[in-house]
Amino acid sequence: MAMGSAHAATLNVQNGGDVTSLDPQQMSGDWENRVAGDIFEGLVTEDAKAHPIPGMAESWTVSDDGLVYTFKLRDGVKWSDGEPVKASDFVFAFQRLMDPKRAAKYAYLQYPIKNAQAINKGKLDDMSQLGVKALDDKTLQITLENPTPFYLGALTHYTAYPLPEHVVKAKGDAWVQVGNIVTNGPYKPVEWVPGSYVLTEKNPNWYDTASLKIDGTKFFTLEDLPAGLRRYRAGEFDILTQFPGDQYKWLQENMPGQAHVTPFAGLYYYVLNSSKPPLDNANVRKALSMAVVREAIGPQILGTGELPAYSWVPPGIANYEGGPAYVEWKDMPQGQKIAEAKKLLEAEGYGPSKPLKLQLRYNTDENHKRVAVAIASMWKPLGVEVELVNSEVKVHYADLRAGEFQVGRAGWLADYDDPTNFLDLLKGGIEMNYGKWKNAEYDKLLDQAQTTLDLKARAGLLKQAETIALKDTAAIPIYYYVTKNVVSPKISGFEDNVKDIHRTRWLSKAE
């Protein structure tokens, strides 16, 4: 029987949320990262298993004290308009990222760079003091505040992508419009219909275009998971980045090998708005957390076997000797947890005659809805009355950032392999600390860990911080993520990995 050969084709991906911008400094979601990592490339990029490999930089050296990284750019690297990619494009991008006026949501991921935090917080207004220098067109030097064991991994993140200085200066904020935008990754965007899709095609000026097996990718905005699965079955999508949990068994039986469910570095949690009553009360927060029957969620509510989370940092993260800290009541029998939770609420004056009324917000998605309904019913025996509110992902996260919520669903996927990537989410003054929980001792321990070279001692400080956050119920960890991709048998090169990053450059498609 003749086999269809792999040939250049368009990859159709159900991408989830709506891409808000093609500017890597204005992104915040995994659905945006999927597009960004195809059209831009940093000094360091990811291989098929999401490990760091050389990107725009062909090589680098690190000084003995771990503070100075010197990168040599590859020969002849170009933007999609044919202009050279220069070391100064990286300097321009990092300075723009740290400009307080631009309010880049994820600027803090590059705080390891010398003076980055001081500049971004408006405490230092001399941009030339940022530790990023172009020694010549092909040599970039990055100086860090302290030795940072995960820094090469952090350079794969979209906050570390270069920007085309010549275009941004000429076009201002309109530089990201299709027609103006130039990019330096394997692909370039050729169409972008907000609310609908982003379409890319090969970037002929990328250094390794000859190796690309896929012509371009169409990233479809679609948050309706049952509709996504129907369209996949009809052949409209090659990859689903999510599927309804209750269809896992069906997929295993009817489309064996196509559902990819593997553990990865991510946490599903509920944020508690601790800036105002009633959730400014640690006992109320603790009662709510204790009443969540985490063991039921992965196997029964979702059906995909997510693991119950009793820590803030998922197990298996690098540089965290002995694994994460856990809540002290983790192994208490469930009946005892409920009794204890009731007692805590009664002590704060809540009960059948004065129920605790809460609004629980989640972004539109069948799986989030299932979890919210289940948790609302777990809280019912405590006399908690829950109103469920859902909105699309952009609106949902805007509400969380604005503090317009009481309890809100959130999720975090590791940007780099280190516990600080999770612990920073609870730090004072960080935009992603939606619940505005604040603890001076916690912040101090994280700052101390930043300057601690001994990895074992550093892990000890981080664990002390995690213990404080768990004891005070800064938020409610619910489960550790598993990937939920569905991949057509036509696609090869798709490698499951703990970061769930799958760049188009490693894939091919057979007809």
From TrEMBL:
Its main location: periplasm. Pfam families: SBP_bac_5. The keyword Kinase does not apply. GO terms for biological process: peptide transport. GO terms for molecular function: peptide transmembrane transporter activity. CDD domains: PBP2_OppA. It is found in: Periplasm. InterPro entries: Peptide/Ni-bd, SBP_5, SBP_5_CS, SBP_5_dom. Residues 52-429 form the Solute-binding protein family domain. The keyword Oxidoreductase does not apply. GO terms for cellular component: ATP-binding cassette (ABC) transporter complex; outer membrane-bounded periplasmic space. Keywords: Signal, Transport. Belongs to the bacterial solute-binding protein 5 family. This is Peptide ABC transporter substrate-binding protein.
